[in-house]
């Protein structure tokens, strides 16, 4: 499916992975509808300056056509109107990317499920799962008449294990299951559905957290050595653009892919020419901690997180057993909060 001239909708394109995906599709020559709630006409997050108009301008600067539309994807009528606008403008939709999140401020890290604010958790599900269902429900019918199409669910982690907080875990695993369920029902159509995760993402918020910019991001490696293996939002964006251009993309239907594996398969690089592989880095970091001993609190936290992530992964059963023995030996002192 050639990308130049194709029509894409990136839902949740204001910042982070969504902005990178929109830019990468623009780089490939697509017409990209960039939707979200933060606009120059009114932002919903006073702490963040990014807007959908900025994203659309970056899409156009990259070589595509960026169109910014302010849409609240929890509003089904608004989503239906968005799709009708695309139908009227373009007559088709080739790529649909569900990247709506909005859960950072609602995620209560460090609390167990019986300590959580249920209303906040339900708001996360509405923003990060219900929106994806609504957008696919109305967007996919416009894709069915084409010769090929791609629906992408953006998640966090391609593993079956736990992500550290109940509602966060529900949101990120639910969209993987959504991609699979849609793929089953789309099997006799020209449309393919799949999920994909980025690695350690150098989003605008993450760069701000470390007090750096994309120009000097390496300065933050002294604070967090894992940051050396981070990736820009364009990396997962270029991975999605490559998938959309692959005439055999259906072989990935229903699967949860990773930016790093897709990049290696298609020969994609990040903006700086690197090809980071987050899983290989984590495995190497875990092995080094286990061999070295004398773990720091940060080491113990990383081991605890990784142990939960690789639950049910038979290929990593021995690694999980080694981590469990190590944590038992050192008192399993890791905190549950990444903050």
Outline the structure in words.
It is built from eleven helices and seven strands. It is globular and about 65 Å long. The protein has helices spanning 16-27, 52-62, 76-90, 118-143, 166-185, 204-210, 233-245, 259-266, 278-292, 297-309, 317-329, and strands at residues 7-11, 31-36, 65-70, 95-98, 149-154, 191-197, 256-258. With 339 residues, it is of the alpha/beta class. The termini are far apart. The chain folds into two domains: 7-276, NAD(P)-binding Rossmann-like Domain (Rossmann fold); 279-329, no CATH class.
Strand content: 5-15%
Radius of gyration: 20 Å
CATH homologous superfamily name of the largest domain? NAD(P)-binding Rossmann-like Domain
Residue-averaged pLDDT: 94
Q: What class would the helix/strand composition place it in?
A: alpha/beta
CATH topology of the largest domain: Rossmann fold
Instruction: Please give the largest β-sheet.
Output: 7 strands, parallel
Cα distance, first to last residue?
42 Å
The total count of strands amounts to 7
How many separate structural domains? 2
Proper CATH architecture of the largest domain: 3-Layer(aba) Sandwich
Q: What is the helix/strand order? A: EHEHEHEHEHEHHEHHHH
- Please mark out the parts with pLDDT under 50 across 5 or more consecutive residues, or reply none: 333-339
The shape is globular
* Number of H- or I-type helical stretches: 11
């Amino acid at each position: 499916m050639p990308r130049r001239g194709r029509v894409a909708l990136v839902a949740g394109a204001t910042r982070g992975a969504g902005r990178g995906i929109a830019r990468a599709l623009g780089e490939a020559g697509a017409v990209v509808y960039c939707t979200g709630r933060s606009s120059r006409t009114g932002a919903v997050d006073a702490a963040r300056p990014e807007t959908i108009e900025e994203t659309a301008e970056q899409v156009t600067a990259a070589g595509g056509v960026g169109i910014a539309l302010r849409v609240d994807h929890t509003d089904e009528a608004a989503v239906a109107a968005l799709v009708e606008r695309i139908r009227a403008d373009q007559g088709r939709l080739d790529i649909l990317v569900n990247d709506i999140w909005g859960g950072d401020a609602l995620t209560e890290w460090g609390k167990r499920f019986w300590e959580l604010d249920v209303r906040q958790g339900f708001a996360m599900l509405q923003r990060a799962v219900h929106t994806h269902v609504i957008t696919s429900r109305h967007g996919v019918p416009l894709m069915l008449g084409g010769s090929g199409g791609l629906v992408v669910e953006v998640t966090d982690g391609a593993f079956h294990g736990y992500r550290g907080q109940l509602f966060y875990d529900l949101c990120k695993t639910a969209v993987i299951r959504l991609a699979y369920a849609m793929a089953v029902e789309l099997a006799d159509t020209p449309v393919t559905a799949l999920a994909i995760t980025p690695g350690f993402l150098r989003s605008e918020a993450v760069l701000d957290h470390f007090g750096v910019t994309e120009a000097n991001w390496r300065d933050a490696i002294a604070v967090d050595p894992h940051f050396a293996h981070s990736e820009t939002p364009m990396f997962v964006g270029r991975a999605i653009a490559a998938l959309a251009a692959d005439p055999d993309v259906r072989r990935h239907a229903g699967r949860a892919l990773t930016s790093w594996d897709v990049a290696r398969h298609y020969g994609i690089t990040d903006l700086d020419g690197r090809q980071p592989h987050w899983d290989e880095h984590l495995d190497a970091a875990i092995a080094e901690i286990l061999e070295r001993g004398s773990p720091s609190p940060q080491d113990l936290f990383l081991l605890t997180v990784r142990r939960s992530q690789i639950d049910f992964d038979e290929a990593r059963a021995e690694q999980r057993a080694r981590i469990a023995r190590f944590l038992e030996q050192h008192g399993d002192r890791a905190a549950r909060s990444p903050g």
